[in-house]
Design a protein that fits this description.
By secondary structure, this protein is mainly α. Helix content is 68%, strand content 0%. Helix 1 (2-25) packs antiparallel against helix 3 (65-98) and helix 6 (170-192) runs antiparallel to helix 10 (296-325).
Length: 326
């Protein structure tokens, strides 16, 4: 039961990550100006009386039903995921009493993380999309997903056969995992500061290989609390800097990923093909975001692709760790 429930939580967390991306990309992060409800209701106000009451209570935030529903559906799924993680924590604590081999710390850490994620969800609204909180909320979602997948792997016997990772590739796999996580953080910073289209061309940026940059403002993590950050507050050079660094990060992931794929291929591991396909798809989606001017479907898939690359790297690292222990 615990294994099936963990897999269900992984699927649910994947949906939450994609819905979070859709909410950001449709500028629906403030679709409901309060939390945890929406204009004081448990659902989006729909009747004329409810809408009039909502807009009287929040005159600065007229009801936009499509944005409010995007935000509330995301909250509904996130709340359900939180409940499932609470149940998992209880089940694993009980199982620990019967066997010390059962995972114990990881489910409790997930419980603490999902509580923190709830707080970040609230702060996202109350601090009006403050980029630091939005990025941290995104990273929390990806971390929750990857740790749930790790919990599932720990309950599995493994794929066996050619789904192996030589222990000699463990160090490179760990380095790539860290770089992928940093790249996801950069992607979150791009999104929360509305820098996705700061460079309208590819592979150059405004026709330059080294565009004018402003690292001080672009990576200022002490932005003022108070302004509404919907649409972003940074100047163009700062946004160009964020986009340009994100591209350098993608190049780093590509180089390290190619080296790891070659090592896995030489070792006869099927993970070589899976990782190569995931990386190629993600990089292609990133390029299409620029040349097609950030279409919603491709931008959402780009977020999902980042989650897929992360899960592949978690799996590769787990298998490398198992190989070292063996």
């Amino acid at each position: 039961m615990r294994k099936k429930l963990t897999l269900f939580a992984v699927c649910l967390a994947s949906v939450v990550v994609v819905l979070g991306a859709f909410t950001r990309l449709t500028d629906a992060g403030l679709g409901c100006p309060d939390w945890p409800g929406c204009y004081g209701f448990l659902a989006v106000p729909s009747t004329e009386a409810a809408i009039a009451e909502a807009e009287a209570a929040y005159p600065h935030a007229p009801v936009e039903a499509h944005k409010a529903w995007a935000e509330m559906v995301h909250r509904y799924f996130a709340t359900t995921l939180g409940f499932v993680i609470v149940v998992l924590a209880v089940l694993f604590v009980r199982a620990r009493r019967e066997s010390h081999r059962e995972p114990f710390r990881l489910p409790l850490f997930l419980l603490a993380l999902v509580i923190l994620q709830g707080a970040f969800g609230a702060w996202t609204v109350t601090l009006k999309l403050w980029p630091q909180v939005v990025t941290a909320h995104l990273l929390g979602g990806f971390t929750t997903l990857s740790l749930l997948w790790l919990l599932y792997l720990r309950q599995s016997d493994g794929l066996g056969g050619r789904w192996t990772v030589p222990h000699s590739a463990g160090t490179l796999a760990l380095v790539l995992l860290v770089v992928v996580f940093v790249q996801i953080a950069l992607g979150g910073w791009v999104s929360s500061n509305y820098a996705a289209l700061a460079c309208p061309d590819f592979p150059t940026c405004h026709g330059l290989w080294l565009p004018p940059t402003d690292f001080h403002e672009g990576f200022n993590v002490f932005q003022d609390v108070g302004p509404n950050y919907l649409g972003g507050q940074m100047e163009n050079d700062a946004r160009v800097t964020i986009q340009w660094v994100h591209r350098l990060g993608a190049l780093t992931v590509f180089v390290l990923g190619t080296v790891l794929c070659l090592r896995l291929y030489r070792a006869g591991s099927r993970f070589a093909g899976v990782l190569a396909l995931a990386l190629a798809t993600q990089i292609t989606l990133g390029i299409l975001n620029v040349v097609l001017t950030l279409p919603l479907t491709i931008a959402t898939l780009h977020n999902a692709g980042g989650a897929l690359v992360l899960l592949v790297m978690v799996t590769v690292n787990y298998r490398a760790f198992r190989a070292r222990r063996a």
